[in-house]
Design a protein that fits this description.
Number of domains: 1
CATH superfamily: Alkaline Phosphatase, subunit A
Helix content: 25-40%
Strand content: 15-25%
Number of helices: 16
Oligomer: single chain
Radius of gyration: 23 Å
CATH class: Alpha Beta
Number of strands: 21
Distance between the termini: 53 Å
Largest sheet: 8 strands, mixed
Length: 493
């Protein structure tokens, strides 16, 4: 196939806009490379060319091109049979959030076991939360708190993998990747990725290590890179994550690219340019130019709503500090779910609270990290309720494991997988309850143990009509087997 072009001159661009489809290349997938070219090739005083070349290329997912990625997801979904109009947001507290200081304070236990942040009574009669969660305590009727979440892995990397994979022993495949394989692009041709990973650039080296550990665990394994997460944040920004390459590796002035995209978006319908592109190249272009792109843009949100989420007054980090971005991540997750994303993972670092010089102790850690979680999640729960989305979005709060029931000599707690933090909100499930009981010192489940495979089963129940999914001939047998062994938490149904 040769080079096919469509151009149009606009009143805002002295030079024509060109949408160009290049020759297919084996490394680019069968759908080839898509480029958007605007402006002339004149150099400006800063050495940049006014000719702006936007190349919709790889997503950082093993070299797979965006049009091919979208095609693979749609093909896998087989027109989306069995896909519900629901989404999952997984707020993952990396490092291991302590079960006592979050949702199981144990204030009647000896001093070295009870919550160092005290407790606050919740709207569920007889149930209290850790003292840094007053907002969530007031919204506890919209939560389902699990006090018996357990597994057997105390190594950070292995535990992150176990929880992110929902106990799945097959193929190193995360819950989000399974959801993407079964669901594909869930709302029409918007181009919204089915699986997104939200993080922030970390100034603390340990926190950044946690970010990369979680990103690796969110991968698709043997399912293939096309089902892995679309990463936003961290050491790159949205534009570079999407690989919108300019005539140099980075365009220093991000406003230039935004203005160019906006001009193209206003004019492209009049050009007929889209007619020369196949369906998935059109979808890739829509991700950059259309409604899906706008979902990532918080400037289009009501400033009053953004202010409700804002956690920037809280500083995070130990060897270096930055304002907490959790509030912006939570509102972005809500926007992505509204736009059609099926599974969003949010990374929140710093919960490895052993104490000492390089890590928080429990008291400082809960003040630094518990407060912004309380604020951001409370804003999220109120926002989705106000928008009528509570039944359509399931929020999960967890981490790789819990902390030792007894405080250590540094005022911290150490690794403890036998009891871990877990809570749910929304998704059409039964809220306003506590599931399971822990022993008197929060050492292990006393009743109704909940395991990672039950978390995966709950996710699949929320996202899919599993009976319809099982009828699809193209669903791999390994996933069918996984659906059979991963049963949802019965108390939530």
């Amino acid at each position: 196939m040769g080079d096919r072009r469509a151009s149009v001159a606009t009143s805002e661009l002295a030079e024509p806009l060109t949408v160009r489809r290049g020759n297919p290349d084996p490394s680019h997938g069968k759908h080839g490379m898509l480029q958007i070219v605007s402006g002339s090739s004149r150099r400006m005083c800063d050495g940049l060319r006014r000719r702006e070349v936007l190349q919709i290329g790889t997503l950082g997912l093993g070299g797979l091109q965006l049009p091919a990625l979208l095609a693979a997801r749609a093909d896998a979904a087989n027109t989306g049979r069995g896909v519900k109009d629901t989404s999952v947001v997984l707020l993952f507290l990396t490092g291991g959030p302590g079960q006592i200081e979050t949702f199981d304070p144990k204030m009647t236990a000896p001093a070295e076991y009870r919550s160092v942040s005290g407790e606050v009574s919740s709207r569920i009669p007889g149930v209290s939360l850790g003292g840094t969660f007053p907002g969530l305590a007031g919204l506890a009727d919209r939560l389902a708190i699990v006090r018996s979440f357990t597994h057997d892995t105390s190594d950070h990397t292995q535990a992150v993998e176990q929880v992110m994979r929902g106990g799945n022993p097959i193929g190193q495949t995360s819950m989000g990747a399974v959801a993407a394989r079964l669901g594909g692009t869930s709302r029409g041709r918007s181009g919204m990725p089915a699986h997104v990973y939200l993080s922030s650039q970390e100034v603390d080296r340990q926190f950044d290590k946690e970010r990369l550990r979680l990103l690796a665990a969110a991968g698709a394994g043997t399912l293939g890179g096309q089902y892995g997460p679309f990463p936003v944040g961290g050491d790159t920004q949205l534009n570079s994550d999407m690989q919108l390459a300019m005539t140099r590796a980075r365009l220093d002035d991000r406003l230039t690219i935004n203005r160019a995209l906006d001009r193209m978006n206003r004019r492209i319908d009049a050009t007929g340019a889209m007619r020369v592109l196949d369906d998935y190249q059109q979808q890739a272009l829509q991700l950059v130019l259309g409604t899906s792109r706008s979902a990532f843009d918080l400037s289009q949100e009501d400033p009053r709503v953004v202010a409700r989420y804002d956690t920037s007054r809280f500083l995070t980090g130990i060897t270096g500090h930055r304002p907490s971005s959790l509030g912006h991540q939570m509102i972005l997750a809500r926007r992505l779910c509204e736009a059609g994303c099926g599974f969003v993972t949010i990374h929140n670092a710093g919960w490895d609270m052993h104490g000492g010089a390089t890590q928080y102790n429990m008291s400082d850690g809960m003040e630094k990290l518990g407060r912004p979680v309380d604020h951001a999640v409370s804003a999220f729960l109120e926002d989705v309720r106000d928008r009528g989305l509570s039944d359509r979005i399931l929020l999960i709060i967890t981490g790789e494991f819990g902390r030792t029931p007894r405080l250590n000599d540094s005022g911290g707690r150490d690794h403890w997988p036998r009891l871990s933090t877990l809570a749910f909100a929304g998704g059409g499930l039964r809220m306003g309850q506590v599931i399971g009981r822990s022993t008197a010192k929060a050492e292990e489940p006393q009743s109704d143990p909940v395991t990672p495979d039950q978390v995966l089963g709950t996710v699949l129940h929320v996202l899919f009509d599993l009976a319809a999914v099982r009828e699809q001939a193209d669903v791999p047998r390994t996933i069918v087997s996984l659906m059979q062994r991963s049963q949802p938490i019965r108390e939530l149904l």
